[in-house]
Write a structure and sequence with these properties.
six-stranded antiparallel sheet; alpha+beta; 6 strands; 4 helices
Length: 173
Amino acid sequence: MRNTIKKNQQGFSLVELLIVVLTIGIIAVIAIPNLLAARRSANEGSAISSLRTLHGAQSTYQTSVGAGNYAGTNSTNGDTVGLGALNSAGLIDSVLGVGTKSGYNFAGAISLSGPGTPATFFFTANPVSVTGATQSGTKRYCVIQQGFIGWDSASLATPFDATSASTAAPLGN
């Protein structure tokens, strides 16, 4: 009986490996932009939900802890003082109370009531990153005391103020 040595091929050829790497690369090129768009969309949904939470928290604060006043600083520009007060009162979670949640920065302010003028408040939500692959949102949002949520896609880095929040385009338009 004659012993013959068989040559066994083991592993993959260089061409086969290159084809697999190229296929994975093509799938990644297609999938990554969709993944980033989905993340931005989720961030925007979270921002809208957080603004609704803030609206409810302000209403509760005004009728219970605030003795008729809303939580926050009396100004036309926003800060995070109201968020801290709502968090301290146990009306919002600690993540939102810091002012940054799900790729958005939050700020707000109030105006005190006067003779014939009711107290008002607004909150604004702006994307943390406004350009490039790390863009966290394509819109900025706001809410005012009537529960109106407004938005626009211009000036993403500029927060709404008391005047622009009350004249923003309504959500859904």
